[in-house]
Amino acid sequence: MSAYKLILLPADPWCPPVNCEQLAGELQTIGLIGEPVALEDNVFFPTGDNFLQLISFLGCSPMIELDPPADRATLLAASAAGKFCHLFLNCTASLAFRADSQCPPPRCPNCRQPAPDWQTAIETWQRNTAQSDWICNNCGFTGQLTDLSFRKTAGFGRTFIEIRGIYPSEAVPAAALLGTLQHLTNEPWKTIYIKE
Length: 196
Ligand SMILES: [Zn+2]
Description:
alpha+beta; two-stranded antiparallel sheet; binds zinc ion; 196 residues; single chain; globular; 2 domains
């Protein structure tokens, strides 16, 4: 089962890891998230009191479900399918790659041509992170996989704020939220929209 997700991550893939407890504390202080709820072997955060001030939904009064199902038996399936807005914080020591299942080919940062072999290169890197080089077949540009331009459908990082239940481009983070995150890492953050 997959869910639509809005994911916030530092714009620079090489931003140092963020302490997840500190991140959760900051997000609770500004009211993006509530108290953690155990779910199988994971923990999710329901939306906080200021969620709708910190995440701006676009368009005319969308149907936004913020409350988790009261029925514990359906909670797991509802979470996996993104049936309601709730958050996960993913903080990893090593670099991770998150992408939409229908992610279009990224573009070369030099010639802007699509990289048709990108999935093979990512899989090779995921098996052996030392193999992170990428060479453009079109212009010969030599760099790293992290140089590829994925726009808003994929990203590399160590820290991901995952909001389930938001369709692509249905909502954007408000300036106040981006300001809090930038203050935390001394770097700007970006938004991607994926289904995974
Ligand atoms: Zn190129």
